[in-house]
Amino acid sequence: MALMSVEEAIGLVTAEVSALGTEDVPVAAAAGRVLARDLLARRTQPPADMSAMDGYAVRGADIAETPARLAVIGESAAGRPFAGPVGLGEAVRIFTGAVVPEGADTVVIQENTARDGAIVTTTAPTATLRNVRLKGCDFTAGTPGLVAGRRLTGRDIMLAAAMDHPTLPVARRPRVALMQTGDELVLPGQGTGKDSEIVVSNAFGLAALARRAGAEVTDLGLIGDDLAAIRARVAHALSGAFDLVVSSGGASVGDHDLMGPALRAEGVDLSVHKIALRPGKPLMFGSRGGVRVLGLPGNPVSSHVCAMVFLVPLVRALQGDAAPGPLAAPARLAVDVPANDARRDFMRARLERHADGSARVTPFASQDSAMLSVLAAADCLLIRPPFAPAGKAGDPCEIIPFDD
């Protein structure tokens, strides 16, 4: 059977995926969540013409010629506006963030004035509307400030709060179940020291990636290489408590690779199996009812790379994220690299940023799919397309940066 391309597999994994539902959360808790509806401003900002500096609010016509002597008739401070208009030959002492009084159209900064009792003299020319933040220059009531599908940053939260939203409509977090198979696996600190044992690691990295993408994660634990036991765990995962089931291990076609048979036996329609990528060829994807199932390889690096390419975009898409990824970034090779074969290669690499803003990428010499030390030392994945010719140092390339 011919291997499926990475692009086709991503298309199938994220096909017909939309947000699972909507919930309202306090604005203080909305960072990292995906906005479910366009957010309209509930007020105008600033709500009136405001001073951008400490100084004096005046009529521009009164200071057309400098020096100009004006009578100080009051004060306007933030939260305590001056009551009344500014007339001919008058000025109001004003502070940053205060409402500009009616009649005034300019603020002369304090450094350009001299005060003598109730008289202020301007010592430098100031143009009309100088140092004034006009009403609505930031946003106006009823206009969209943030659009649906946006993953909210801290800056977005600031804007939402300023638009007077105490709560925000966001996509529900996908509920993800993790399971890992293998007779050789033991939990950290619980092994007997036998050479045949391998301390489990995949689930921790997968959980971190899924949570960072916005999921609620439940680890269903380790399962031995027993078809009945795997089927029972799969049946539980598909019972309706989860939106996405993610397995690690048992995805190939060996005698002990039982995840595929278990999934099929439980009615999962596997639309994806065996991808033309490295590392991670034995990857599965399917669904039963409304529950999606992603079967990742057991090798730690393969599992993690496939999660970056498939799991993270799927979790994001299940929240209505407008840009679920995987998002590639431009860079340049720091060294020569050989030609690639028929599989899309995701090479662990070190990223070096230069003063001119360019990023130079050096792949590690070892790309063994079991070497976690190389994965931990890497800054990014260097993407080598199928049949890419040999690359020279300085050639453009694409990377997927690690953002954790």
From TrEMBL:
Keywords from UniProt, A to Z, are: Magnesium, Metal-binding, Molybdenum, Molybdenum cofactor biosynthesis, Transferase
SUPFAM superfamilies reported in the protein's UniProt record:
MoeA C-terminal domain-like, MoeA N-terminal region -like, Molybdenum cofactor biosynthesis proteins
GO BP term (any one): Mo-molybdopterin cofactor biosynthetic process
Q: In which pathway does it act?
A: Cofactor biosynthesis; molybdopterin biosynthesis
> What is the top-level taxon of the source organism?
Bacteria
One Gene Ontology molecular-function label: metal ion binding
Q: Which Gene3D superfamilies match?
A: MoaB/Mog-like domain, MoeA, C-terminal, domain IV, Molybdopterin biosynthesis moea protein, domain 2, Molybdopterin biosynthesis moea protein, domain 3
- Please list the cofactors this protein needs: Mg(2+)
> Has the keyword Transferase been applied to this entry?
yes
Q: Which SMART domains match?
A: MoCF_biosynth (SM00852)
Q: What is its EC number?
A: 2.10.1.1
Ranges of residues in domain MoaB/Mog: 177-317
User: So what does this thing catalyse?
Assistant: adenylyl-molybdopterin + molybdate = Mo-molybdopterin + AMP + H(+)
PANTHER family to which the protein is assigned, alphabetical:
GEPHYRIN, MOLYBDOPTERIN BIOSYNTHESIS PROTEIN
Family in the record: Belongs to the MoeA family.
NCBIfam families per UniProt: Glp_gephyrin
**This chain belongs to which protein, by name?**
Molybdopterin molybdenumtransferase
Species of provenance: Xanthobacter dioxanivorans
